C-alpha cells in the first residue's frame, strides 16, 4: 500500500500497528494482509488477513402483487415481490397484519426470500401484507398491500321483518305485508333471485336482495319459495328453500288488539279535552284581565272630562251630579208667594236642603207662580 501518509486516508499508528480507514467507500472493500517482523536474537514473522466489506443502508422497499386484479378462491395464485433501490447484503422478511408470516403449505418462497407465492388462494389469505428489509446498518418496512380474492357465496340465510320463523317455515297472518331478505358472505356481492315453487313448476317472482310478499293476494295457504344467491366471478351458487304459511286472524287476538286500542283512544280523548279546556280557560282569563285594565283606566279619568262634552237636554252625565245640594231662595219680602191651589195661605219659603231632583221639581212651580223669582 504505497503512499499511506500522502493519501490522508490510511493512518498507521506504531508501535501497535493499528490501521484507520477514513471515509469508507466501495473501493475500500477487499482483503488486507498485516505482516509483523520482530528482529532480535530470534526473528519472528506473522501474517494476518483482514476482509473489509462496506454496507449501504437499505431504502424503503416496494411490494407488487401478480396478478394485480386479484385471484379466484381455490383457482388462482398470487405472487408478491419485494424490491429495494439501495442496500447491500439485504435480508427479506414477510409480514401479514403486522406479524411474521409463518411458513405453511401453499406458500412458496424464493431462495433469498424476496418473493413468495400463495398457491390456490382461499378466503383466509385475505389480509395486509408487507415486506421488511434489513442489513447490518439499517432496516425498513414497505407499505401494506391487500390482495383481492374473490370467494363465496357462503352462509346464505333468509329472514323476515314480520311473522314467526321456525326453522325454514315462516307463519304470517293474512292481510300482512312481509319483507323477506336474503344475504350471504360473498366477494363481489352476490345477486339474488326469488323463485316460487308449486305444482312441479317454478316461477321467478323477483330479483334483488329482498322480496315483498302481500299475503292477501296469495291464494294458497302454504307456499314454497326459494332464494338463489349467485357470484358471477367465482361461478358459485347457493340456494335456500323456505315455506310461508298464511293463517287467518285469530278472533281472540283481534279482540285483544281492539281492547288494547280502546284504553289508548280513551286516554287520548281525555288528554285532548284537558288541553282544549286549559286553552279556553287561558283565553277567558286573558279577556277578563283586558276588560279589568280598561275599566281601571276609565275610572281614573278626571271628572273634568265629562264637562268638556256638549250639554244635552237629557241627563247623560247625571251619574256625576248625585249628591246633597243647598237651594237658597231670596224672595221679595213685599211680595207674597202663593202656592197654586191655596190662594188664601201665604207660603214663606225658607232655606231647604234637597237633591237636584227636588230642585228640579220646585223651581218650575215657583217660576210659574212668580215670574220675578
| CATH C-level class of the largest domain | Mainly Beta
Distance between the termini: 167 Å
Following the backbone from N to C, one meets helices and strands in this order, namely HEEEEEEEEEEEEEEEEEEEEEEHHEEEEH
Named CATH architecture of the largest domain:
Sandwich
Arithmetic mean pLDDT: 76
Percent helix, as a range, is: 10-25%
User: pLDDT below 50 for ≥5 consecutive residues: which ranges?
Assistant: 303-309, 337-357, 359-373
Which structural class do you get from the secondary structure elements? alpha+beta
Q: Walk across the major sheet and give the strand order.
A: 15-16-22-21-18-19
Put simply, the count of helices is 4
CATH topology label of the largest domain:
Immunoglobulin-like
Whole-number total of structural domains: 4
Beta strands, count: 26
Q: Outline, from the CA principal axes?
A: elongated
**What is the CATH superfamily of the largest domain?**
Immunoglobulins
Membrane topology: Single-pass type I membrane protein
Domain Ig-like: 61-146, 147-243
Protein name: Ig-like domain-containing protein
Keywords: Cell cycle, Cytoplasm, Disulfide bond, Glycoprotein, Immunoglobulin domain, Membrane, Signal, Transmembrane, Transmembrane helix
Structure description:
- This protein is α+β, with helices and mostly antiparallel strands.
- It has four domains: 4-52, no CATH class; 62-147, Immunoglobulins (Immunoglobulin-like), CATH 2.60.40; 155-247, Immunoglobulin-like, CATH 2.60.40; 318-369, no CATH class.
- It has four helices and 26 strands.
- It starts with a helix and ends with a helix.
- The chain crosses the membrane at residues 264-284.
- It comes from Pyxicephalus adspersus.
Amino acid at each position: 500500500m504505497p503512499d499511506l501518509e500522502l493519501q490522508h486516508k490510511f493512518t498507521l499508528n506504531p508501535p501497535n500497528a493499528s490501521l484507520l480507514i477514513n471515509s469508507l467507500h466501495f473501493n475500500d472493500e477487499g482483503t488486507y494482509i498485516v505482516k509483523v517482523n520482530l528482529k532480535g536474537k530470534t526473528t519472528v514473522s506473522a501474517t494476518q488477513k483482514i476482509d473489509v466489506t462496506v454496507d449501504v443502508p437499505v431504502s424503503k422497499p416496494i411490494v407488487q402483487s401478480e396478478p394485480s386484479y386479484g385471484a379466484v378462491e381455490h383457482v388462482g395464485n398470487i405472487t408478491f415481490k419485494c424490491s429495494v433501490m439501495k442496500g447491500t447484503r439485504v435480508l427479506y422478511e414477510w409480514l401479514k397484519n403486522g406479524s411474521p408470516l409463518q411458513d405453511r403449505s401453499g406458500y412458496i418462497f424464493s431462495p433469498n426470500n424476496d418473493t413468495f407465492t400463495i398457491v390456490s388462494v382461499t378466503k383466509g389469505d385475505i389480509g395486509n401484507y408487507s415486506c421488511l428489509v434489513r442489513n447490518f446498518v439499517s432496516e425498513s418496512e414497505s407499505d401494506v398491500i391487500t390482495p383481492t380474492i374473490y370467494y363465496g357465496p357462503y352462509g346464505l340465510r333468509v329472514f323476515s321483518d314480520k311473522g314467526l320463523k321456525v326453522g325454514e317455515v315462516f307463519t304470517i297472518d293474512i292481510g300482512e305485508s312481509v319483507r323477506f331478505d336474503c344475504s350471504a358472505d360473498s366477494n363481489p356481492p352476490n345477486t339474488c333471485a326469488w323463485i316460487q315453487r308449486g305444482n312441479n313448476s317454478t316461477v321467478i317472482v323477483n330479483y334483488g336482495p329482498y322480496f315483498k310478499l302481500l299475503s292477501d293476494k296469495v291464494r294458497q295457504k302454504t307456499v314454497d319459495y326459494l332464494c338463489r344467491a349467485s357470484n358471477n366471478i367465482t361461478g358459485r351458487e347457493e340456494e335456500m328453500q323456505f315455506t310461508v304459511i298464511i293463517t287467518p286472524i285469530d278472533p281472540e287476538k283481534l279482540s285483544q288488539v281492539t281492547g288494547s286500542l280502546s284504553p289508548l283512544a280513551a286516554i287520548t280523548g281525555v288528554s285532548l279535552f284537558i288541553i282544549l279546556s286549559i286553552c279556553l280557560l287561558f283565553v277567558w282569563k286573558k279577556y277578563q284581565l283586558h276588560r279589568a285594565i280598561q275599566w281601571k283606566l276609565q275610572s281614573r279619568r278626571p271628572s273634568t272630562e265629562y264637562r268638556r262634552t256638549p250639554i244635552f237636554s237629557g241627563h247623560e252625565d247625571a251619574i256625576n251630579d248625585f249628591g246633597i245640594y243647598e237651594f237658597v231662595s231670596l224672595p221679595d219680602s213685599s211680595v207674597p208667594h202663593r202656592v197654586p191651589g191655596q190662594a188664601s195661605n201665604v207660603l214663606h219659603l225658607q232655606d231647604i236642603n234637597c237633591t237636584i231632583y227636588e230642585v228640579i221639581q220646585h223651581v218650575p212651580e215657583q217660576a210659574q207662580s212668580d215670574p220675578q223669582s
